[in-house]
Known about the structure:
Its main location: Golgi. The protein has 16 helices and 27 strands. Strand 3 (127-133), helix 4 and strand 4 form a beta-alpha-beta unit. It has a seven-stranded antiparallel beta sheet with strand order 17-22-21-20-19-15-27, with no helix packed on it. A five-stranded mixed beta sheet has the order 5-4-3-6-13, with helices on both faces. Strands 7, 8, 9, 12 and 14 form a five-stranded mixed beta sheet that branches. Ligand LR7 is lined by residues 132-134, 136, 165, 197-198, 201, 218-219, 247, 303-306, 326-328, 330-331, 355, 361, 363.
Amino acid sequence: MSAIRFNRRVVRYFLIAFFVVLFLYVLMTGGGGNSKSSTSAIKKKPWMTTGKLGNFEPKEIIEREGPGEGGHAHHLKPNQENDAAASLSAYGMNMACSDEISLDRTIPDLRMDECKYWNYPEDLPRASVVLVFHNEGWSTLMRTVHSVINRTPPQFLEEVLLVDDFSDKENLKGKLETYIKKFNGKVRLIRNPERQGLIRTRVRGAEEARGEVVIFLDAHCEVGTNWIPPLLAPIYYNRTTMTVPVIDGIDHDHFEYRPVYQAGQHFRGIFEWGMLYKENELPDKEVQRRSFNSMPYDSPTHAGGLFAINRNYFLQIGAYDPGLLVWGGENFELSFKIWQCGGSIQWVPCSRVGHVYRSFMPYTFGKLAEKKKGPLITINYKRVIEVWFDDKFKEYFYTREPLARYLDMGDISEQLALKDRLQCKSFQWFMDNVAYDMREKFPELPPNVHWGEMINKATKECIDTMGHAAPTVMGMSPCHGWGNNQLVRLNAKGQLGVGERCIDADRQGIKLVFCPLGSVEGPWHYDEGDKTLMHKETRKCVALHPQSNNLSLMPCDPINTYQQWVFKEIPSP
Ligand code: LR7
Ligand code: MN
């Protein structure tokens, strides 16, 4: 009897010990088991230590006191208001405030706790951190450099490469050249002989960079604790993976460092059919694919500014399309190209970098924009969708941006040839396999039945957003023929809108509102005969008040010209 009990106890202890060992093993290997490919078989995977700090974690936590330290807001004195206002309007950020904050200031460690326990290979590739800049403020530019130098293990930092996109600010000339000498060659400066815009300037940076990996940052960033190993590791295992840090916000007025998302919450980049960049909560499929919530995850696209990529791979896939000008759309071009041509994009929760979101864009697009007719960013989008979208999806873009059909996007034959040469997959493949969460947020768009200016028959004026952001009431103004705030679209499902926003009605009048997410339908019925626009729910019609010039719903009166609306397509610009 006792012998049997004894044996049972031994078995029980043995089983417990077995599971403890198994558990520790799973924990230490990151649950991944064996390696991905034959080359990576010799490369050790990152692993989670049990209770011990990861191999590149800083050994001590630095604390400092002073303005803005710890990422706190710094408030200027009332008598500095003029300086603050002047710098805000020159730079889109309060440089008077920034100038009082140390270039070496500390920022909070906003990572998930788990991040501190990851170990990474000791032989990660070396990176060139490339900062392109055009007329940036001195202290925000240099704080970016300082934060990279201070918080990057030197063995992984080949250089910080500053690429000046033809700035004309005096302090970015000789003073900058002298200042960077103190970094003993770690910081290098090259200059464009003429303005190239950020897109071409980044390509030049990648061509000139000496590191195996290039990491692009905007010239007003601060990198977080142990930011670099988690960005480099996925590239080390697979050179066709591009990695993106989590981008926190730095206030443009008082420089407070704020988390974009709480630790552990994950979002990824998608887009609206008018090519507006959006972020969407990580779909369950991606959450479940990973064994730890701090592990990198796939993202269809990225915001544009901050990412790491193997330098040769970036150049091999044609870097950015050289036909994209100055600013905008390049983030989509690179994302579609990478995914469709066999690479991948991962967002990395354990790497956090702060970025100053400006209050407005302080620079113009210069000579490059003057040469182009029409809105340059939309032209960039058109190039991107014409190269990477399948025909069906191109229509969604033109439904949202009808004027884009008439814009001259230049020659895209080289891009199409590249797509062919790299044997890239279709956009449908991308939508089904990568951006599958787009369907619920931004379903496929029904065509427009009308678009253009929406003109009142009585006054001959146009319905207009008056330049206000949603939610706001719509107004009336003389038709100007430029589109923009007067460019209205009515789709086959009764949705009326301007750009990405929708038009609806309530007691206050006819309003510009956010479109309901996940729906392409709307409340309107347009009568092609009477030219009235009826709200299906209330069965009332959009009417203009002759005296006040206000818009509201009124009982339908089809012979009243104040209730009659005609759509006029706008000729090509
Ligand atoms: O002509 C120019 N030449 C330049 O060198 C214009 C700009 N630049 C530099 C500029 O000095 C800065 O360092 O390029 C960098 C980016 O310009 P910003 O900071 O004016 O751009 P942004 O932060 O408003 O815009 C986002 O979208 C851009 C165009 O698509 C770029 O991809 C930016 O890098 C990108 N920024 C981010 O992704 C940071 C996260 C915020 C978001 C969204
Ligand atoms: Mn920026």
